[in-house]
Fold:
Amino acid sequence: MAETKSVLFKIRRQGSPNEKPHWEEFELAWHPGMNVISSMMEIARNPVTRDARQTTPITYDSNCLEEVCGSCAMLINGKARMACSALVDNLEQPIKLEPLSKFPVVRDLAVDRSVLFENLKRVKAWVPVDGTYDLGSGPRVSMHEQEEAYPLSRCISCCCCMEVCPQFNEDTGFVGAATISQVRLFNTHPTGAALKRDRLLALMGDGGIQECGFAQNCVEACPKDIPLTRSISEVGGSVMKQAIGDLFKR
Amino acid sequence: MRQPKIIIVGGGLAGLMATIRVAEMGVPVELFSIVPVKRSHSVCAQGGINAAKNKKGEGDSPWIHFDDTIYGGDFLANQTPVQGMCDYAPALIDLLDRMGVMFNRTGEGLLDYRRFGGTLFNRTAFAGATTGQQILYALDEQVRRYESEGKVSKYESWEFLSAVLDSNRTCRGICAMDLRSMEVRTFPADALIMATGGVGAIFGKSTNSVVCTGSAQSALYQQGCYYANGEFIQVHPTSIPGEDKLRLMSESARGEGGRVWVPKQLGDKREPNSIPEKDRWYFLEEWYPKYGNLVPRDVATRAIFKVVYEHNLGIDGKPMVYLDLTHIDRATLDRKLEGILEIYEKFVGDDPRTTPMKIFPGMHYTMGGLWVDFNQATNIPGIFAAGECEYQYHGANRLGANSLVSCIFGGFTAGPNAIRYAKNQQTAPGSGHFDSERKRQEEINAGLMKSEGNENPFRLWRELGELMTKDCTVIRYNKNLVRTDAKLVELLERFRNINLSDRSMWANTSFAFTRQLYNMLQLSRVIAQGAGMRDESRGAHYKPDFPERDDKNWLKTTKAYFAPDADEPKFEFEPVDVSLIPPRARKY
Structure:
């Protein structure tokens, strides 16, 4: 008889933003279909470390568990990805879990990613509708345009693209790929285009699109396969055109 | 006149739509949500949103949409508000379209529509198979716009604990907890709109998101709100069984032609693709020739249960059936269903374009909820409710793609109604109720933190989920329901011996969860007892001992209210508004 298979986890713990992080190891009995979230749920039911020490359940962000809400991004074996879709059978052990490194830690694996939502405000990532009253149908959109825009609007704000970007750090203040891609989405929408210039201006200067170093890590890391590098190059072109245009208007 | 202030709890479709409506009318909003609103559970809705725009020349109309909804709900829904929703649905689609929702298009650049369950018309607008996500984002963006204009203040990572009620039992604000600092605070408001979703977590594993515990509704029920039709729980026929949750496999898969079948022979070991047509049983198509695979969810779920548990047919002896898309061409699948195919691929590892999916029914939607009147107002003055957390649009069974429209419509009307109420509001008698409510909540917290028992909240939750799934979902027997309620009392008893393995006062998720668990236990009794009382079968509520619908005795809304002294639910019933469509037998 083979021994009961087990799964080893090594999890970086940090009680609060100012505490020093430490590591804890957990050993769980293997069963089919385990993923990183279901494993942490199991730890919550029995919060005991591998060396039989009582501990606390792991704090992490999660909600939908089907990779569409964007909550559970973390570093799994060093890679920025969603924990719900990280199937244990596909991971090398011990499975190392760490919080995303570019965002302030709240506790354990939970981080504060509100910077992305602030960036979306800065670039006015919305369609400026007149109001909610019954004003008839929206603009015609061809099948082709819909097929270009739809993948961009599937961004789940997980921030993996920002985590892996060498330029996304405090020094540059770079907005990151997700925000730039949303600029492309709203600038191509017939009504959204009304704010095109505002959005492009928001991407000029420090922290703007010129901070991109073309490392292309973003497009690799995106769990939704969003064509981020194409968005960056298209929006980059528009920003350039806008800047030159504005220069000659002076 | 004094400027009123509105608090909205919950940032899914209903909460965001209400926020937009209130902000648009120039009234300040404070929006509370456990998660950043963009991560709310509405994001999981897949297949689409109904509106009878009749864009395929089939003769569809809002009246037929209304009739399908009432009939699909087995005549338990009050008809006047449902008609209002179906009439306004086309305008809501236009609004979403204007907001930039990337709906699928026809060759002419118009919105495309597809089939869904419980109707014979192409009535469902869709954005791939991630319609909820797309609509949630559009509303989230509009709210962000108002936020940047200073008209909306968001309190994300805050959890609603209770309403603040004055000595006249009128709502004057809320008591909430910061999920990081664990600080308990009260917030005054002239009206409150609850939009806190469904109760999936009561069933342990469901298609719902982690935050869908029903804790907020339960807290209000314990404060005096009626909770209506709690016994009506939708079990979706097609979900992917999983370790941590049941992942939804949208009805749109069948709307686009997906077929449900099992191997005819017990224990057939062949791979599904090598099982010839003659050895497959397309039981839905055989039993329901008119609607086929698109019968309403309660009907499809019971059919699957019958095949699996009575005919003992499944897949290789396991309780599952095939949902087959392999006959549909890849380009169509990718264009119309990619989001859900991707989920199946990522979580199961097979490609549903080439291999039939293995699925089984899973708890999905809460038809019951906070009782509201036709203005979305609960029975406590100042508290409104919209979306899945209230009861009024779906009766005994919700039709697919009606949830998005009911959430948006509910929020759309609740917003202005709450303002109207708030503007006519008298000032409160005194203000001591804020302090006393905060103290009451702080005492609950202190009690939990001190509790030195031996019960792990997450293990207790698992027991609750297994219990409720077994006896309070698809097939219900009175004997088991009585036992379930007794067991719930026992779980509530054991809850007193809870032990938080985490006693820190920073981002303590176990602590927040334990508070939710108590509320789940209290609300579970409403579901179990409500099911026990209703001796008939109607929509999703099915009792083999009472297999027929009984309009004479049970064409009525169940209203549970909490009796604090007895610490348990009491029940009243009220007649259903059937003023527009006379009830008829429901036969698909």
About this structure: Chain B touches chain A through 71 residues (CB under 8 Å).
